[in-house]
Amino acid sequence: MSEEEEEKKVNLREEFEAHLNSPLPLLIRIRNFIFGKETPDNYTKFSFFLALVIWSIFLIWSVLGSIAIRMREMIVDQKEIDVTEMIEARGIELGFEPNAFIDRLEAFHALSICFWLVVFIGLVLLWRKNERFVYFFFTGCGLYLLFMWVMLGFGYYSGDTTFFDKIAFAIMVLHTAVYAYFLKREKSGQQLNFFGVDDEE
């Protein structure tokens, strides 16, 4: 073997080892482990990404809300914004005791993060076209609404959640319910999707 061929062989080995050591193969394996290797049909992908975008908005809002409450003293020191006073004032307007509302709001944000993680499991199963996704997805969404009403009251839902939040949540739930209906029919042998066209060839 010539010196040039030997050098090429060494370079190929080094490139292969670098490829194995890079985070990309690991990320691909994690993605395949979570979502599987098969790509679903177009309607399933549309349903998944629609729900995922809305899910991301609600999850981010829950995380930011939890952080803002937990770091309210730091916010006062750095931004001179009294988060505690604002929350307690709103709690009194909703009929809560001053200290009770902020504790409930903090607990709700923490719980809502857990609920949205349950919803994400449902989305993963939706991508895999597993009918059991409905149990995780609708349980997580249902618990989110239920705990909001029980812990914070319907007044909080009607006055402190935006019109966009209500519409986005309704779109996510209703569209996913429609998808679940078509998936159930497909699993029973009727190759149907929302557009009435079979994507499988």
Question: Can you tell me about this structure?
Answer:
This protein is flat. The chain folds into 2 domains: 37 residues; 148 residues, no CATH class. It has 9 helices and no strands. It is mainly α. It is 81% helix and 0% strand. The mean pLDDT is 82.
Topology:
Elements: H1 3-21, H2 23-35, H3 42-70, H4 72-79, H5 83-93, H6 98-127, H7 133-152, H8 154-160, H9 163-187
Summary of the model, kept short:
The chain has helices at about 5-20, 25-35, 40-70, 70-80, 85-95, 100-125, 135-150, 155-160, 165-185. It is an all-alpha fold and about 200 residues long.
Features:
201 residues; mainly alpha; flat
Assign the structural class, choosing from mainly alpha, mainly beta, alpha/beta, alpha+beta, or little secondary structure.
mainly alpha
Number of discrete domains: 2
Proportion of residues in helical segments: over 70%
Report the sheet with the most strands, covering strand number, pairing sense and barrel closure: none
Distance between the termini: 50 Å
User: What does the oligomeric state look like here?
Assistant: single chain
The chain-level mean pLDDT equals 82
What is the CA-atom radius of gyration, in angstroms?
24 Å
Total number of helices: 9
Bulk shape? flat
For the secondary structure, the number of strands is 0
Q: How much β-strand is present in the residues?
A: under 5%
